[in-house]
Amino acid sequence: MKQCAILSMDNIADFEAYDHLIEPHLNALGWQVTTVSWRDKNVNWHDYHAVIIRSPWDYQDDAQQFIQVLKQIDSSSAHLENSLAIAEWNIDKIYLKALEQQQVNLVPTLWRDHFEPTEVLSYFDQFKQQQIVIKPRISANADNTFWLTIDNYQEKMLELEQAFATRNYQ
Q: Has this prediction a pTM greater than 0.90?
């Protein structure tokens, strides 16, 4: 029987996950399915024929380490579904800027390398909107995503500064 790892995280209890729905279909095709946390350092990726990236929804907490794990999987005998190149391209949402330059329609976006609290008010003017969303370029699950209005943005400034204090991207 072929072995398939579903790449997940240590504890998915607080998330809606549907990884289990794939199991009976893979089982019917002769695959044994095991859910594996991407943080598990004791995994021998050679034990698997395939690894499917499904629910590693905490990767943004250590994106560099997550990519290192994907590189380990990619260099093993296991086939990494969702190729390493695509995962690396997709992890930092700056790829959306490249798509926009290719005429793909996006939500109007400002790209910043660092969070500057003094600029937030100007964002409302730049977009001619009463509400905006600020989020990191590397994020998942709406972690550190802020929906701000012209009336409440000042109340969120401390939280914004704390959220972006350790991030290089927004």
A: no
